[in-house]
Amino acid sequence: MTLLEGLTPVAPTGLFPLAWLMIAIPLVSAGLLLVLGKVTNSFGHYVATLAPIASFVVAVALFADLLGRPDAQRAVSVPLYTWIKTGSWTINVGLLIDPLSILFALLVTGVGSLIHVYSIGYMAHDPGRRRFFAYLNLFIAAMLVLVLADNYAVLFVGWEGVGLASYLLISFWQHKPTAATAGKKAFVVNRVGDLGLTMAIFTMLAMFGSSSFVDVNAGASKLSPFWVTLLGLLLLVGACGKSAQVPLQSWLLDAMEGPTPVSALIHAATMVTAGVYLVVRSHAIYAETSIAALAVAIVGTVTLLAGAWIGTSKDDIKKVLAGSTMSQIGYMMLAAGIGPVAYPFAIFHLLTHGFFKANMFLGAGSVMHGMNDDVNMRHYGGLSKVMKITYYTFLMGYLAIIGTPFFSGFYSKDSIIEAAWEKQPVLGALALIAAGVTAFYMTRLMFMTFWSSKRWQDGVHPHESPAVMWVPLVLLAIPSVVAGMVMNAWIAGWLAPAVNGEVPLNPSWLPHITVVGMVTLAVVVAGVGIAYLVFGRTSIPESVPYTRNVFTIIGRHDLYGDAFNEAVFMKPGEALTRGVVALDTGVIDGAVRGSGALTVGLGGGLRKLQNGYVRTYGLTMIIGVIVVGIALVIGRLV
Amino acid sequence: MNPNYYVVLAAILFAIGIVGFLVRKNALVLFMSVELMLNACNLLLVSFSRVYGNLDGQVASFFVMVVAAAEVVVGLSIIVMIYRVRHSANVDNENLLRY
Q1: In the 8-state DSSP scheme, what is residue A448?
Q2: Diameter over CA atoms, chain A
Q3: Strands A89-97 vs A76-86: parallel, antiparallel or unpaired
């Protein structure tokens, strides 16, 4: 194994000075759709679909250029302009295109384009279609800013941009109170994470005088252990918020209120993986602090278990997939926390997960489309016969996520479990168990949706979705199957220079069969088998069965995450506000009103002196004169 | 010269003025009381001017007379107006400016 130094960015040549077009095209498209308004109602969604495709073309061209370069030349810095210049700080806006960011750009624009195409069909009859596409474009632009930025401050702009797009799209159907609330919840929970990230950026500016990746990477090793650990933990808080990691996970399940393409694009394939990107991008910091790196791994492990747990107990197909997303991102965080050996696997799993989870979410959308927007899996069943294309593409995603050999998820997830097993055996064992749970809940989903007998409600006539929806499904199913095989031998070597990773000795497209790999397979088979025993042999009740199983009850309540937040943060917060209000009305307003009342009272008393009798005034003056006179005489005597 | 008698006289006149101002009700009598007090002051000014042998006090007493004359012009016209309206110059009735 060779440990490579981080890449030093080189000046842009060829196509690279035009890299900003990737961001500008969807941004301009979003602006046009929002500003021109109803004029674009008839064709706006086509424009909006072409925008990410154009960005994708640029990304592919840049990727091809990078492929042709020697390792050391593969990080290109594209300076754009100076954003803030004050005192000793200069913050430049620039793009950094390196092996890590270009993979993200390809994922965001590639999967994003397919989801745009899919949305043409999915949102065909929605009155807010133009607004929807404008927000999707806004999201693509913001996400590209996030991954292409060459410093943390610009990254933060993209970070907030995707947060805004996520908020707008979760509450897209704002006439539904649940959707409006879910959007607000996502926004508020994300603010907690953003606080961590902003404080990390402030720390960088204070410590390094710069927030650019190059300066931070160079300076990380010179920091004192306290500051570097603090920096690592603050970045972790930021990553937790955006990636729905415990303890900031509660917003992701509610985010499923948004339209299904949004859940696929933002809350499964791209935005929620930004936290993983942040941690991997900050590899130089985590290399200096084993405490923060361990914290990342522990958070990842807790989340991957929590997400899998939730996935086993939900009946809402989108919430099962959301729990699964949490869980898979937990795997990526675990890999990112393990260290250099696993960084490429974190990104590898991120990419394969982007494919198969987007595929399954869009498949779920296709199912909902055929079932009159019902999301309850207890009303599904037997759909494999009526929705053949959706079924087979979903099946590919299913086989990929549970880790069937030769499917994409197998390569990426097994690599993570093996790496975890080597470095942190306890976390590795937990990740191994979660792999079995994943197999269990995904098999349950397949039984309840596609395989078991029909439990359709009256008036529901499932049918296959139009081609504009199933073509993206097919295009996503292909990488769900083959991405692992294609990238397995290549990705570690490709990413290693950019993330200071280690290059494995014998890369190959064949699965790397080890003891841990065999055990994982056995656990997965056990998970599938248990799911078959529980759900495959008996009919599935149409209403939620009563259960005394504590684990199921806890899972149905999202592990009481909301109850926890309510008891620990909301109730004391409310008590505090009530206290402050009481203080305000009692003490502050009391003082103001009291002084007013005092003045009125004094005035009321003093005005009695004005009794209208001249002699009273005269007497007052005389008394005054006498007093003054006495004072003068006494003054003279003393 | 010895100013004692003049000072005592001025004090007596001033006291009469005060008492008159405080106990009488007719506006004209009040006016006369005020004039009495002013003239008590004038008497003192002139006496001490004589004692110290310079003219400052006498000049001041002229000023007092001029101001008193102006005051009488304004005051008397107001009293006459009030008397015409109310047929009385009783100051206790003119008590509209009170709380």
Answers
A1: I
A2: 119
A3: antiparallel
Measuring CA to CA, which residue among B58, B51, B19 is closest to residue B36? B19
Taking one residue from A and the other from B, the number of pairs with CB-CB distance under 8 angstroms is 29
Cβ contact A614–B30 (<8 Å): yes
The closest of A58, A28, A125, A173 to A469, measured between CA atoms, is A125
Averaged pLDDT of chain A? 90
Half-sphere exposure of A432 (CA within 13 A, CB side): 20
Which tokens go with A611?
A: 């009794």
Confidence of residue A1 (pLDDT cuts 50, 70, 90): very low
Question: Measured between CA atoms, how close is B24 to chain A, in angstroms?
Answer: 9
Contact (CB, 8 A) for A246 and A125: no
CB contact under 8 A, B21 and A615: yes
At residue A123, the 3 state secondary structure works out as: coil
At A89 the pLDDT is 86
For residue A636, pLDDT beyond 70: yes
Q: Please report the ipTM that was assigned to this predicted complex.
A: 0.87
User: What pLDDT sits at residue A501?
Assistant: 67
Say if A622 is an interface residue toward chain B (CB within 8 Å): yes
Locus of tokens 């009700």: B25
pLDDT at A421 exceeding the cut of 80: yes
pLDDT at residue number A3: 36
Instruction: Name the closest residue on chain B to residue A616, using Cα atoms.
Output: B22
Q: Which residues contact A591 (CB under 8 A, 6 or more apart)?
A: none
User: A614 CB near a chain B CB, below 8 Å?
Assistant: yes
Candidates B18, B23, B95; nearest CB to A613:
B95
Above 60 in pLDDT, residue B77? yes
Residue A441 DSSP one-character state: H
Find the mean pLDDT for residues A148-174. 94
Residues 574-613 on A with a CB inside 8 Å of B are 607-608, 610-613
For residue A317, is pLDDT > 70? yes
* Nearest CB partner across the interface for A612, out of B22, B23, B96: B96
Q: How far apart are the first and last CA of chain B?
A: 52
Indicate the burial class of A524 (C-beta count within 10 angstroms; 0-12, 13-18, 19 or more): buried
Question: Of A326, A388, A382, which is closest to residue A353 (Cα–Cα)?
Answer: A326
Contacts with A, B 3-22, CB within 8 Å: 18, 21-22
Residue B86 structure tokens: 């109310």
Q: Which residues of A touch B22 (CB under 8 A)?
A: 615, 618-619, 622
Nearest to A264 by CA among A128, A120, A364: A364
pLDDT tens for each residue of A103-148 = 999 999 999 999 999 999 999 889 999 999 999 999 999 999 999 9
pLDDT of residue A356: 94
